[in-house]
Amino acid sequence: MRIVKCILDPGSVRVGYNIPVMEENLTLYRRMRLIRSFEERLLAEFSTGKLFGTTHTYIGQEADAVGLLSATDPEDVVFSNHRCHGHFLAYGGDAYHLAAELMGRSTGLVGGRGGSQHIHWRNFYSNGIQGGIVPVAAGMAMAEKIKKTGNIAIVFIGDGTLGEGTLYESLNMSSLWKLPILFVLEDNHYAQTTPVEKGVAGTMVGRFSAFGITTWERDTTDVLEVRSASHEAVALVRVGSEPAGLILHTHRFSAHSKGDDPRTPEELARIRQFDPLTIQAKRLTADECARAEVEATEIVEDAFRRAEADPFPTLGGGG
Ligand SMILES: Cc1ncc(C[n+]2csc(CCOP(=O)(O)OP(=O)(O)O)c2C)c(N)n1
Ligand SMILES: [Mg+2]
Question: To the nearest 10°, the Cα dihedral for 45, 250, 237, 179?
Protein backbone atom coordinates (compact mmCIF):
# COMPACT_ATOMS: atom_id res chain seq x y z
CA MET A 1 0.00 0.00 0.00
CA ARG A 2 1.23 3.50 -0.80
CA ILE A 3 1.99 5.78 2.12
CA VAL A 4 1.18 9.42 1.47
CA LYS A 5 1.24 12.51 3.59
CA CYS A 6 -1.97 14.48 3.81
CA ILE A 7 -1.33 18.10 2.88
CA LEU A 8 -3.79 19.41 5.43
CA ASP A 9 -2.39 17.39 8.29
CA PRO A 10 1.37 17.33 7.79
CA GLY A 11 1.89 15.74 11.19
CA SER A 12 0.32 12.38 10.47
CA VAL A 13 1.15 9.65 7.99
CA ARG A 14 -1.83 8.28 6.17
CA VAL A 15 -2.55 5.21 4.09
CA GLY A 16 -4.13 6.25 0.82
CA TYR A 17 -5.74 9.63 0.32
CA ASN A 18 -6.97 11.06 3.59
CA ILE A 19 -7.73 7.65 5.14
CA PRO A 20 -6.17 7.29 8.59
CA VAL A 21 -4.15 4.19 9.36
CA MET A 22 -5.84 1.27 11.12
CA GLU A 23 -4.76 2.24 14.63
CA GLU A 24 -6.42 5.60 14.12
CA ASN A 25 -9.60 3.85 13.00
CA LEU A 26 -9.58 1.83 16.19
CA THR A 27 -8.77 4.86 18.35
CA LEU A 28 -11.67 6.79 16.89
CA TYR A 29 -14.00 3.84 17.43
CA ARG A 30 -12.85 3.31 21.03
CA ARG A 31 -13.54 6.95 21.85
CA MET A 32 -17.02 6.84 20.31
CA ARG A 33 -17.70 3.54 22.09
CA LEU A 34 -16.74 5.09 25.43
CA ILE A 35 -19.12 8.00 24.91
CA ARG A 36 -21.96 5.66 23.93
CA SER A 37 -21.42 3.34 26.91
CA PHE A 38 -21.11 6.26 29.33
CA GLU A 39 -24.32 7.86 28.13
CA GLU A 40 -26.28 4.59 28.10
CA ARG A 41 -25.19 4.00 31.68
CA LEU A 42 -26.12 7.57 32.56
CA LEU A 43 -29.68 7.14 31.30
CA ALA A 44 -29.97 3.91 33.25
CA GLU A 45 -28.63 5.55 36.41
CA PHE A 46 -31.26 8.27 36.34
CA SER A 47 -33.97 5.77 37.18
CA THR A 48 -32.03 4.80 40.33
CA GLY A 49 -32.26 8.32 41.81
CA LYS A 50 -28.50 8.74 42.22
CA LEU A 51 -28.29 11.70 39.85
CA PHE A 52 -29.43 15.27 40.19
CA GLY A 53 -30.94 17.70 37.70
CA THR A 54 -31.33 16.67 34.10
CA THR A 55 -29.08 15.40 31.34
CA HIS A 56 -28.73 15.64 27.58
CA THR A 57 -27.07 12.67 25.95
CA TYR A 58 -24.89 12.69 22.86
CA ILE A 59 -25.97 9.25 21.63
CA GLY A 60 -25.97 9.29 17.82
CA GLN A 61 -23.78 12.38 17.50
CA GLU A 62 -20.49 10.82 18.64
CA ALA A 63 -18.77 11.19 15.26
CA ASP A 64 -18.94 14.99 15.49
CA ALA A 65 -16.88 15.54 18.62
CA VAL A 66 -14.57 12.57 18.10
CA GLY A 67 -13.83 13.45 14.47
CA LEU A 68 -13.38 17.13 15.20
CA LEU A 69 -11.35 16.92 18.38
CA SER A 70 -9.05 14.33 16.80
CA ALA A 71 -8.07 17.13 14.40
CA THR A 72 -7.25 19.75 17.04
CA ASP A 73 -4.27 20.37 19.31
CA PRO A 74 -4.28 19.59 23.05
CA GLU A 75 -3.86 23.27 24.00
CA ASP A 76 -6.79 24.49 21.89
CA VAL A 77 -9.67 25.83 23.95
CA VAL A 78 -13.01 24.04 23.68
CA PHE A 79 -16.37 25.57 24.58
CA SER A 80 -19.35 23.28 24.89
CA ASN A 81 -23.02 23.51 25.75
CA HIS A 82 -25.78 21.63 27.57
CA ARG A 83 -24.99 18.45 25.57
CA CYS A 84 -21.43 18.40 26.83
CA HIS A 85 -20.56 14.89 28.07
CA GLY A 86 -19.71 13.57 24.61
CA HIS A 87 -17.63 16.66 23.83
CA PHE A 88 -15.80 16.26 27.14
CA LEU A 89 -14.98 12.57 26.69
CA ALA A 90 -13.90 13.20 23.09
CA TYR A 91 -11.62 15.95 24.41
CA GLY A 92 -9.92 13.28 26.51
CA GLY A 93 -11.76 13.96 29.74
CA ASP A 94 -11.92 11.41 32.51
CA ALA A 95 -15.10 9.34 32.91
CA TYR A 96 -14.74 8.98 36.70
CA HIS A 97 -14.54 12.72 37.42
CA LEU A 98 -17.45 13.30 35.04
CA ALA A 99 -19.57 10.63 36.74
CA ALA A 100 -18.71 12.15 40.14
CA GLU A 101 -19.79 15.58 38.91
CA LEU A 102 -23.10 14.17 37.67
CA MET A 103 -23.66 12.63 41.09
CA GLY A 104 -22.81 15.92 42.81
CA ARG A 105 -19.73 14.49 44.58
CA SER A 106 -16.79 16.55 45.78
CA THR A 107 -14.48 14.60 43.45
CA GLY A 108 -16.42 15.85 40.44
CA LEU A 109 -14.83 18.01 37.78
CA VAL A 110 -15.92 21.19 39.52
CA GLY A 111 -16.40 19.83 43.01
CA GLY A 112 -19.90 18.52 42.40
CA ARG A 113 -21.44 21.97 41.99
CA GLY A 114 -21.70 22.23 38.21
CA GLY A 115 -23.72 19.12 37.44
CA SER A 116 -24.39 17.88 33.95
CA GLN A 117 -24.16 21.16 32.04
CA HIS A 118 -21.47 23.25 33.71
CA ILE A 119 -18.16 21.48 33.65
CA HIS A 120 -14.54 22.50 33.30
CA TRP A 121 -11.23 20.69 32.97
CA ARG A 122 -8.00 21.98 31.45
CA ASN A 123 -9.05 23.99 28.37
CA PHE A 124 -12.58 22.63 28.27
CA TYR A 125 -15.58 24.69 29.40
CA SER A 126 -19.33 24.16 29.11
CA ASN A 127 -22.39 26.27 29.82
CA GLY A 128 -26.07 25.32 29.67
CA ILE A 129 -27.38 28.70 28.51
CA GLN A 130 -27.92 28.46 24.79
CA GLY A 131 -25.44 30.72 23.02
CA GLY A 132 -24.21 32.10 26.34
CA ILE A 133 -20.71 30.74 25.95
CA VAL A 134 -20.22 31.87 22.35
CA PRO A 135 -18.99 35.42 23.15
CA VAL A 136 -16.76 33.94 25.86
CA ALA A 137 -15.23 31.69 23.20
CA ALA A 138 -14.70 34.69 20.93
CA GLY A 139 -13.01 36.51 23.81
CA MET A 140 -10.76 33.55 24.47
CA ALA A 141 -9.88 33.39 20.77
CA MET A 142 -8.91 37.05 20.99
CA ALA A 143 -6.74 36.33 24.04
CA GLU A 144 -4.95 33.50 22.21
CA LYS A 145 -4.39 35.79 19.24
CA ILE A 146 -2.96 38.59 21.39
CA LYS A 147 -0.72 36.14 23.24
CA LYS A 148 0.35 34.62 19.89
CA THR A 149 0.01 31.09 21.27
CA GLY A 150 -1.11 29.51 17.99
CA ASN A 151 -4.04 27.94 19.87
CA ILE A 152 -7.54 28.25 18.54
CA ALA A 153 -10.97 28.35 20.19
CA ILE A 154 -13.66 25.87 19.21
CA VAL A 155 -17.29 26.42 20.15
CA PHE A 156 -20.11 23.91 19.75
CA ILE A 157 -23.66 25.12 19.18
CA GLY A 158 -26.89 23.40 18.14
CA ASP A 159 -29.37 24.26 15.40
CA GLY A 160 -31.76 25.67 18.01
CA THR A 161 -29.08 28.11 19.12
CA LEU A 162 -29.20 29.86 15.74
CA GLY A 163 -32.00 31.91 17.28
CA GLU A 164 -29.72 33.51 19.86
CA GLY A 165 -28.69 37.07 18.99
CA THR A 166 -25.41 36.91 20.83
CA LEU A 167 -24.21 34.35 18.26
CA TYR A 168 -24.40 36.98 15.51
CA GLU A 169 -22.54 39.59 17.53
CA SER A 170 -19.82 36.99 18.02
CA LEU A 171 -19.73 36.08 14.32
CA ASN A 172 -19.46 39.75 13.44
CA MET A 173 -16.63 40.58 15.84
CA SER A 174 -14.78 37.34 15.05
CA SER A 175 -14.80 38.18 11.37
CA LEU A 176 -13.88 41.84 11.80
CA TRP A 177 -11.03 41.05 14.20
CA LYS A 178 -9.94 37.84 12.43
CA LEU A 179 -10.18 35.78 15.57
CA PRO A 180 -8.91 32.18 15.57
CA ILE A 181 -12.24 30.53 16.33
CA LEU A 182 -14.09 27.60 14.81
CA PHE A 183 -17.88 27.67 15.14
CA VAL A 184 -19.17 24.09 15.09
CA LEU A 185 -22.88 23.85 14.40
CA GLU A 186 -24.32 20.42 15.20
CA ASP A 187 -27.65 20.24 13.42
CA ASN A 188 -29.48 17.28 14.92
CA HIS A 189 -32.71 18.59 13.34
CA TYR A 190 -34.37 19.44 16.64
CA ALA A 191 -34.25 22.09 19.36
CA GLN A 192 -35.76 20.14 22.23
CA THR A 193 -39.08 19.27 20.56
CA THR A 194 -39.08 21.90 17.77
CA PRO A 195 -38.10 20.56 14.33
CA VAL A 196 -35.50 22.66 12.56
CA GLU A 197 -37.84 23.70 9.74
CA LYS A 198 -40.08 25.42 12.29
CA GLY A 199 -37.23 27.29 13.97
CA VAL A 200 -34.67 28.17 11.30
CA ALA A 201 -35.50 30.30 8.26
CA GLY A 202 -33.17 30.51 5.27
CA THR A 203 -29.94 28.53 5.19
CA MET A 204 -27.50 27.69 7.93
CA VAL A 205 -24.46 28.37 5.80
CA GLY A 206 -25.92 31.77 4.90
CA ARG A 207 -25.66 32.81 8.53
CA PHE A 208 -21.89 32.39 8.39
CA SER A 209 -21.31 33.67 4.87
CA ALA A 210 -23.24 36.84 5.73
CA PHE A 211 -20.28 37.69 7.98
CA GLY A 212 -17.66 36.57 5.45
CA ILE A 213 -16.86 33.40 7.40
CA THR A 214 -15.73 30.40 5.35
CA THR A 215 -17.78 27.35 6.26
CA TRP A 216 -17.64 23.61 5.69
CA GLU A 217 -20.95 21.74 5.62
CA ARG A 218 -21.25 17.95 5.89
CA ASP A 219 -24.32 15.73 6.11
CA THR A 220 -22.64 12.70 7.60
CA THR A 221 -22.20 10.57 10.70
CA ASP A 222 -18.99 9.02 9.38
CA VAL A 223 -16.23 10.00 11.79
CA LEU A 224 -13.62 9.97 9.00
CA GLU A 225 -15.60 12.46 6.94
CA VAL A 226 -16.06 14.70 9.97
CA ARG A 227 -12.36 14.42 10.73
CA SER A 228 -11.39 15.26 7.17
CA ALA A 229 -13.56 18.40 7.05
CA SER A 230 -12.33 19.34 10.51
CA HIS A 231 -8.70 19.20 9.42
CA GLU A 232 -9.47 21.65 6.65
CA ALA A 233 -11.48 24.03 8.83
CA VAL A 234 -8.95 23.92 11.68
CA ALA A 235 -6.11 24.60 9.23
CA LEU A 236 -7.85 27.73 7.97
CA VAL A 237 -8.37 29.00 11.51
CA ARG A 238 -4.90 28.17 12.79
CA VAL A 239 -2.75 28.86 9.74
CA GLY A 240 -4.98 31.31 7.93
CA SER A 241 -5.73 33.19 11.16
CA GLU A 242 -9.40 33.72 10.54
CA PRO A 243 -12.68 32.32 11.89
CA ALA A 244 -14.38 29.38 10.19
CA GLY A 245 -17.66 27.51 10.43
CA LEU A 246 -18.29 23.78 10.39
CA ILE A 247 -21.88 22.64 9.96
CA LEU A 248 -22.46 18.98 10.78
CA HIS A 249 -25.89 17.53 10.06
CA THR A 250 -26.39 14.62 12.40
CA HIS A 251 -28.97 12.69 14.42
CA ARG A 252 -29.72 12.45 18.10
CA PHE A 253 -30.99 8.97 18.96
CA SER A 254 -32.23 9.63 22.48
CA ALA A 255 -34.75 12.14 23.81
CA HIS A 256 -33.73 15.80 24.14
CA SER A 257 -33.08 15.31 27.84
CA LYS A 258 -34.64 12.35 29.59
CA GLY A 259 -38.14 11.91 28.22
CA ASP A 260 -39.11 14.72 25.85
CA ASP A 261 -39.26 13.31 22.35
CA PRO A 262 -41.99 14.04 19.80
CA ARG A 263 -40.55 11.73 17.14
CA THR A 264 -42.40 8.68 15.88
CA PRO A 265 -41.00 5.14 16.26
CA GLU A 266 -40.64 5.10 12.46
CA GLU A 267 -38.46 8.22 12.48
CA LEU A 268 -36.32 6.86 15.29
CA ALA A 269 -35.86 3.59 13.41
CA ARG A 270 -34.97 5.47 10.22
CA ILE A 271 -32.23 7.57 11.78
CA ARG A 272 -30.67 4.52 13.43
CA GLN A 273 -29.25 3.62 10.01
CA PHE A 274 -26.86 6.55 10.53
CA ASP A 275 -25.29 5.10 13.66
CA PRO A 276 -21.68 6.36 13.65
CA LEU A 277 -20.47 3.31 15.57
CA THR A 278 -21.89 0.91 12.99
CA ILE A 279 -20.27 2.92 10.19
CA GLN A 280 -16.86 2.93 11.85
CA ALA A 281 -17.13 -0.73 12.97
CA LYS A 282 -17.07 -1.79 9.31
CA ARG A 283 -13.42 -0.67 9.18
CA LEU A 284 -12.47 -2.93 12.09
CA THR A 285 -12.48 -6.61 12.92
CA ALA A 286 -15.22 -8.11 15.08
CA ASP A 287 -12.59 -8.82 17.72
CA GLU A 288 -11.43 -5.19 17.80
CA CYS A 289 -15.01 -4.00 18.22
CA ALA A 290 -15.70 -6.52 20.96
CA ARG A 291 -12.56 -5.50 22.86
CA ALA A 292 -13.48 -1.83 22.53
CA GLU A 293 -16.87 -2.57 24.03
CA VAL A 294 -15.41 -4.51 26.94
CA GLU A 295 -12.91 -1.73 27.59
CA ALA A 296 -15.63 0.96 27.54
CA THR A 297 -17.87 -1.06 29.85
CA GLU A 298 -15.04 -1.50 32.34
CA ILE A 299 -14.14 2.21 32.31
CA VAL A 300 -17.77 3.23 32.81
CA GLU A 301 -18.41 0.63 35.50
CA ASP A 302 -15.31 1.75 37.39
CA ALA A 303 -16.25 5.43 37.00
CA PHE A 304 -19.76 5.11 38.40
CA ARG A 305 -18.78 2.67 41.17
CA ARG A 306 -16.00 4.93 42.46
CA ALA A 307 -18.04 8.10 42.09
CA GLU A 308 -20.93 6.67 44.06
CA ALA A 309 -18.65 5.95 47.01
CA ASP A 310 -17.31 9.52 47.10
CA PRO A 311 -18.50 12.19 49.56
CA PHE A 312 -20.74 15.13 48.80
CA PRO A 313 -19.17 18.60 49.02
CA THR A 314 -19.45 20.34 52.36
CA LEU A 315 -21.20 23.67 52.77
CA GLY A 316 -19.00 26.74 53.18
CA GLY A 317 -16.54 26.18 50.37
CA GLY A 318 -14.85 22.97 51.43
CA GLY A 319 -14.64 19.75 49.43
C1 LIG B 1 -31.22 30.80 26.47
C2 LIG B 1 -31.81 29.44 26.71
N3 LIG B 1 -33.09 29.21 26.35
C4 LIG B 1 -33.66 27.99 26.55
C5 LIG B 1 -32.91 26.98 27.12
C6 LIG B 1 -33.53 25.59 27.37
N7 LIG B 1 -32.97 24.67 26.36
C8 LIG B 1 -31.92 23.88 26.66
S9 LIG B 1 -31.40 23.03 25.33
C10 LIG B 1 -32.61 23.66 24.34
C11 LIG B 1 -32.69 23.29 22.89
C12 LIG B 1 -31.36 23.43 22.24
O13 LIG B 1 -31.44 23.01 20.91
P14 LIG B 1 -30.15 22.97 20.01
O15 LIG B 1 -29.42 24.26 20.08
O16 LIG B 1 -30.57 22.52 18.67
O17 LIG B 1 -29.22 21.88 20.72
P18 LIG B 1 -29.54 20.33 20.94
O19 LIG B 1 -30.27 20.23 22.22
O20 LIG B 1 -30.34 19.86 19.80
O21 LIG B 1 -28.20 19.69 21.02
C22 LIG B 1 -33.42 24.52 25.06
C23 LIG B 1 -34.57 25.24 24.50
C24 LIG B 1 -31.57 27.26 27.46
N25 LIG B 1 -30.78 26.33 27.99
N26 LIG B 1 -31.05 28.48 27.23
MG1 LIG C 1 -30.60 20.61 17.90
Answer: -70
d(CA 276, CA 249): 12
Determine if ligand 1 sits within 6 Å of the CB of residue 86. no
Q: How far is the CA of 292 from the centre of ligand 1 (A)?
A: 32
Residue type at position 20: P
Digit-coded pLDDT (tens) for 141-159: 999 999 999 999 999 999 9
Closest of 94, 133, 92, 85 to residue 252, by C-alpha? 85
Tell me the pTM.
0.93
Instruction: Grade residue 7 by pLDDT with cuts at 50, 70 and 90.
Output: very low
Give the Å distance between the CA of 318 and the centre of ligand 1. Answer: 32
Nearest to 188 by CA among 284, 286, 255: 255
pLDDT at 9: 38
Name the nearest CA neighbour of 112 among 129, 127, 131, 98: 98
In a 13 Å sphere around the CA of 144, the CA atoms on its Cβ side amount to 27
| The pLDDT of residue 15 | 37
* Residue of 82, 126, 251 with the most ligand 1 atoms within 8 Å of its CB, for mutation: 82
